[in-house]
Amino acid sequence: MGAVGGAGIVADGRPLRRLPRIGGHEAFVRPYKRVDRTEQASPRKGPVVAAKPVVKRLVVLVSGSGTNLQALLDAIAASGAEAFGAEIVAVGADRDGIEGLARAERAGVPTFVRRIEDHGTREEWDAALTEAVAAWEPDLVVSAGFMKILGKEFLARFGGRIVNTHPALLPSFPGAHGVRDALAYGVKVTGCTVHFVDDGVDTGPIIAQRAVEIRDEDDESALHERIKEVERRLLVEVVGRLARHGHRIEGRKVVIQ
Ligand code: GRF
Fold first, then answer.
1. CA of 129 to the centre of ligand 1 (A)
2. Which residues are CB-neighbours of 12 under 8 A, at least 6 positions away?
């Protein structure tokens, strides 16, 4: 499993601390640098200097309208990056001409595009995407409506810190048509899931979920819009908490510290 599996060291060189085995699962924690906002130098050591809070670096990946990206941009602008705990340093996409990229450009956030069709193989595309994201040295990668499966190299480099949002209550209705599949199945409650990415399709450890009721008159688009209202708020809340507090993954369980 790519995201949180065996390796004790990730490719970016930052060490993962191994925790005691819990319920037979391996567990690792990536110690986030903590800064005491009230920390001041003692009078004997020199002038009083307040430490600056740590602001985590986010790269957001999009493929479409980018309303989840916009929710993150708005939340960070409203509270300020320091209070939110993170800033968006770049936005990447797998295609040109999408509203998600336009939203980033309007907010003054750098963008990059890596299209599969410009690369000989899927592996070459994955390597190119990995390099493009790595150049921004992200603490977290947020897949916000990114409609491509991330490859082995990407998972090896960023595993355990790639957050995805999915418009259904996983493990029900994974894949590209989570809203349509829930409607077709006839469930009465669906929702959204924010989870870490592993090497399966929407199978990684779940961080948070919210329910949305299905109405008799719902079609796919009406239901998806209602889910997205809830999903945007959940994504903002989760990304902020991860950035400010850090997390650990114990088997399938995500604990925000
Ligand atoms: C979201 O519902 C996401 O879960 C799904 O695609 C939608 C993206 O919406 N994978 P947007 O591009 O953020 O508006």
1. 20
2. 134, 137, 157, 158
